Amino acid sequence: MALGTSLNRQLALRLCIGGMVIATALGGAVFGYEMERIDDAFVEEAVEQARSLSPQLPPRLDKAARPQVQARLETFLRERRSGASHFAGAEIYAADRTSLAEAMADDNGMLAQAVDRSRHDFPDPGESWYTKHIVGGELYLLVMTGLSDRPDGGYFEGIYHVSRARVAVASRMGLRTSILVILSVLATSALLYPIITRLNRSLVERSRALLYANLGAIEMLGSAIAKRDSDTNSHNYRVSLYALRLAEGAGLDGAGIRSLLKGAFLHDVGKLAIPDSILLKPGKLDDAEFAVMKTHITHGLDLVERFAWLKDAADVVGHHHEKYDGSGYMAGLAGERIPLAARIFAIADVFDALTSKRPYKEPMPPAQATAIMAAGRGSHFDPALLDLFFSMAGDLYGEFGGREDEGLVNTLRLRTLHYFEEALER
């Protein structure tokens, strides 16, 4: 339940952040598009007004018609000056782009400075061109258009003033549309949350079931190996609990602890490939037999490295027989070159072996076991980890030492499951 709640919180946070980012970006884009669309509407309005002048002009626009064109232009600007939006000034060009007339209706002295009219982009017939200017808080559009759709119809260039009131209304419309888009995105995110939550709950349940199945398979395989070796599987559980407590004390992170726990159960998985005549031999192994026994390391690595979920167990499987001074096997690593999980496991493994009953020996008291292990400080074991383990060995032995009951299984699961479940949250 805690895992599902945590994932739901993460989902809600991500949906909220994602929704806000998308809503803001889309809302801004829509607002920009709306304002551009509004500008285009103002330009179309200006073009329509400009082309309404065409019937009033002489049929032939040339130098000879300049006086008439000038008079018509001035009248046109004067008559439309009272409108909410109107041309503040204009210039008329012949088809050959020669200026024929120019007039300003309400130039307040700032337009000539603020609006650059030196650039003339003469559009194709039926097209228009414009630039936008803000002068004294007012919107002005410099518009160039053909007076008709004919190539010989001449051109009209005007400074079109759009009143503040119309700009404000248009801006509110654009803002309203943008806000509606933002609210729509946020509402969609909110509606998606329960749907995704249900899907997520199903995914979590399936992932948890798969996790339990994987952990169960590791337990089963580790227990089968342990029973084949010593008629009991309790050693795996005790060693895992000892190693877990030492790892937590050493500050190992969650990924490291998961690696350690997998390796603790599978550390001897390679013994599946060792003949019974060697594995179960009651006496001491000779050199040839011991050489075969050591190959359980390489066999174990071959097995765990085939599966992505077990690859991180390789640190313990491959190096739990290394010694701190480099005299161990198989790689002969020394010091901190030995993976931390393997150094931790080696201490827990030897302590349990010394304090547990075997067919060939009685269990040692924890004080005697730690005394023997102290002799290997710096040679067999990591000194810092060994000192840390000694500080907790008495309590650990009091809780788990020599136990063979099923309670070990539940205890290990209770103390370790959250380390594996936290990986599902990522």
Briefly characterize the structure:
The chain is α+β, with helices and mostly antiparallel strands and 426 residues long.
> What is the ordering of alpha helices and beta strands?
HHEEHEEEHHHHHHHHHHH
The geometry reads as rod-shaped
- CATH architecture label of the largest domain: Orthogonal Bundle
Fraction of helical residues: 55-70%
Secondary structure tally, helices:
14
Backbone CA Rg: 43 Å
End-to-end gap? 16 Å
> What would you call the structural class?
alpha+beta
Mean pLDDT: 87
Do you know the CATH topology of the largest domain?
Hypothetical protein af1432
The CATH superfamily name of the largest domain is: Hypothetical protein af1432
Task: For this entry, give a set of tags.
2 domains; Hypothetical protein af1432; single chain; five-stranded antiparallel β-sheet; 426 residues; Beta-Lactamase
Account of the protein in words:
It contains 14 helices and 5 strands. The protein is α+β, with helices and mostly antiparallel strands and 426 residues long. Strands 2-1-5-4-3 form a 5-stranded antiparallel sheet. Helix 4 (164-230) packs parallel to helix 6. The radius of gyration is 43 Å and the shape is rod-shaped. The two termini are 16 Å apart.
